[in-house]
Amino acid sequence: MAILLYKWLWVMSAIFAAPAVPAEAPAPGLHPLYVSVTEINHNVTDKTMEVSCKIFTDDFEKGIAEVLKKKVDLIKPANQEEANKLVNEYIQKHIHVMADGKALKLEFIGFELERDVIWSYFQAVNQPLAPKKISVKNNILYETYDSQINMMHVTVGGKRKSYKVSNPEVNALFEF
């Protein structure tokens, strides 16, 4: 029940970009929330497109096990190199980003644990111009949870736009 409450608070804070505030426990029979947050940022200084994905650790481990058929502990991995490989492979299968009609090749930077979530980091190099259109295909954890929600926040030229896809919807378009 505590995890459910925490996830509900995390979703609400992600949606409204406000810090999580303790609340009453959800009503009995409330369906659990499954959510990820993907941040995409055009870094004009480094000429890169930065992509980070925030996923609850328990959900992410379950998704990796179901999709890649490998069990992994992302909190204390026995083999960090194998954990990196699995995180990279999973995200690469579930996030596809195009900038002005060109598919971006995302390079894996790494991942880290933050409380109950895993942040994974990627970048696409040689992106000197601010894109006018960014399209994202995002189906993180869709094989695992029928009610999965994926929030996306894209920042280009200091302008931030957000969009939410819910299973089975996968596509989002951001125009700047």
Mean pLDDT: 88
Give the assembly state of these chains. single chain
The figure for the number of domains is 1
Largest sheet properties: 6 strands, mixed
Q: What is the helical fraction, as a range of percent?
A: 10-25%
**Total strands:** 10
Question: How would you briefly describe this protein structure?
Answer:
The chain is an alpha+beta fold and 176 residues long.
Primary descriptors:
single chain, 176 residues, alpha+beta, four-stranded antiparallel β-sheet, 24% helix, disordered N terminus
Describe this structure in words.
With 176 residues, the chain is of the alpha+beta class. It has one domain (31-175). The chain contains 3 helices and 10 strands, in the order αββααββββββββ. A hairpin with a 2-residue loop joins strand 3 and strand 4. Helix 2 (57-68) packs across helix 3 (80-94). The relative contact order is 0.20.
Fold topology:
Blueprint: H1 2-16, E1 34-43, E2 48-56, H2 57-68, H3 80-94, E3 95-99, E4 102-103, E5 107-114, E6 117-124, E7 133-138, E8 148-156, E9 159-166, E10 171-175
Parallel strand pairs: 1-8
Antiparallel strand pairs: 1-2, 2-6, 3-4, 3-7, 5-6, 7-10, 8-9
Helix pairs in contact: 2-3
